[in-house]
Amino acid sequence: MRTKIETNNVHLHYGDFHALKGINMQIPERTVTALIGPSGCGKSSYLRLFNRMNDLIDGVRIDGKILIDNTDIYAIPQSEVDRLRRKVGMVFQKPNPFPKTIFENVAYGLRVNGLKDKKLIEGQVEKALRQAALWEEVKDKLKKSAFELSGGQQQRLCIARAMAIEPSILLMDEPASALDPISTGKIEELIYELKSNFTIIIVTHNMQQASRVSDYTGFFLLGELIEFDETKKIFRNPEKQQTENYITGRFG
Amino acid sequence: MGRLVERSAEGLIKACGFASALIVLLIVFFLFKEGISFLNSSPVEDHYALFVHSGNPVTQLDEGQIKDLFDKKITNWNQLTNYEYPVVLLTAGDLERLFTPEQLGKNLEYLNACVAHYIDTVPGTLAYFSERQLGLSPAIRIVPVPNISLWKFLSGRQWFPTAQPAAIMGTLPLILGTLLVSLLAILIALPLGLAAAIYLAEIADPRMRNILKPVIELLSGIPSVVYGFFGLVVIVPFIQNLFGLPVGETALAGSFLLAIMALPTIITVSEDAIRTCPIAVKEASLALGASHWQTIFRVILPYASSGITAAAILGIGRAVGETMAVLMVTGNAALMPTSLTQPVRTIPATIAAELGEASFGGLHFKALFALGCLLFLITLVTNLLVERTTSKSRKS
């Protein structure tokens, strides 16, 4: 399998705080990778490196190499960052729809990228909503405010919004942590289906979720990547004692 | 014991809430009670009346005609009715000139006879006397003066509240002056204020923001007289020179000054509104490849729209209600505004300037209260309009 994302000896500092300590990882194309670890271990910070979301935080310093499709994404000029983010979609921890209609939420990414053809936008919006398994629920109320949807629907709307611009990578930062078990189940099913088209990286606190949806798992602890391997191996036969302790719930 | 304290605190808070709501309502009630009582009263002072020869066919005189008669713009009755006599004015001031003290008698006891005789011999006389001093006799009659109507009050083009014998109270020039000055002010202030708010909230680096924000907040605390002084010394001469005007005290000067005064409020309130946009929503936009500017205009501003509406309403409220500074720089001529480089007079400036000279409870005093009601209604209507247009645009 082709390597989609590669990080070489990545360090991240927030001011004096050393948040990531020399992370090396190779993520193959069209797979789901789960990042697990206790709160504050750096997994979300790591995830946000791939679409340069950490740039927004004051006093952040990044060393090392992060390659997507063999391009160092921190070597590109600032003007290319928007283009990078079109390629790397992101779903956040809490549903964060825009104060717009359901339709406009999904169309937003297309519009800001300069698409004006009405038919084309409509087609893309429907496709994205279908991919996010939300179309049947919202097709009659596309003109309604996105805030009228339930939390689970809002989160799937956010997934549709991210997919509408057809990224090749989808970053998910605890996408189900604010949802009830039924909505969580739907999102997990979705992740499973999406992996044939996208390279997905998901941060989660939920061990079962990680083992259910992912092909690869990386375990973070205090800013270090303790272990990165196939999910089966991590959950059945981890190499490191710390990994086993965390997975079996002995700490964390 | 603890429960008792809680209960009494609860009661106290409830009482305070009721009391303040009641006070607000009472103020509005009081304002309208005083203001409305002004309508349907006579423009002529109480107990005074206008007298003419009983052969004079004139049916009634309104306050405009009375002013023209006493200003000698109407010199012959044929300009008003078919009565071919020149107008001769007779007021208490003329008595000494026309009659000897003996003729008038002690305590003016023969005044009635003297005036009646005078009117009888001079058929064109228009006399203005107290009804107590001048009883009716066959030779003279009272000309009725119509009461002040709401329509006349709103559409009259002349404002002479102290004119004698009949006050002229048309508020159209004042209403238009107020609207002109404040709308122009808000048109200047809103884009500038919004731009400044966006700059402060989204673009300025934190150090710059920490300096600018307190300074701007400080500006909103400057008393309006000080702003007025600034306007008088800086803006008025500037406009005078710029347009080559004889006087710089114009509607434009007022608008500029009001815009400057409304800026701090607009900036602070809309900046706060812009900052309420959650970081998560901003990040979602950026994560979709939107640029910073696209994020500001397509996500952050719509998110902040209700706060920006509040800023606009507060700004308009400040502009419409501002008194002192406007009084100082607009020239205060109660004329129909025809251009921006002309003096105008606003409603609040009128109230402030004239309340001191209006006798308490008199017609002029009540007219000023009615002006206050009008001002209240203008701000109410503009607020409702702003609210409605923004809620409409938010829905679509």
General description of the model:
- The complex is a heterodimer of chains A (252) and B (396).
- Chain A has 252 residues and is α/β, with parallel strands linked by helices.
- Chain A has a domain at 3-97 and 168-247: P-loop containing nucleotide triphosphate hydrolases (Rossmann fold, 3-Layer(aba) Sandwich).
- Helices cover 35% and strands 27% of the residues of chain A.
- Chain A has a six-stranded mixed β-sheet. A four-stranded antiparallel β-sheet of chain A has the order 2-1-4-5, with no helix packed on it.
- In chain A, strand 1 and strand 2 (17-28) form a beta hairpin.
- The two termini of chain A are 33 Å apart.
- The mean pLDDT of chain A is 90.
- With 396 residues, chain B is an alpha+beta fold.
- Chain B has helices at residues 2-38, 63-70, 95-98, 101-104, 111-121, 150-155, 172-203, 206-219, 224-243, 251-275, 279-287, 292-303, 305-321, 324-329, 347-355, 363-395, and strands at 48-53, 88-91, 125-130, 140-143, 159-160, 168-169.
- In chain B, strands 2-3-1-4 form a four-stranded mixed β-sheet, covered by helices on one side. A two-stranded antiparallel ribbon of chain B has the order 5-6.
- The interface between A and B is medium-sized, with 27 and 19 residues.
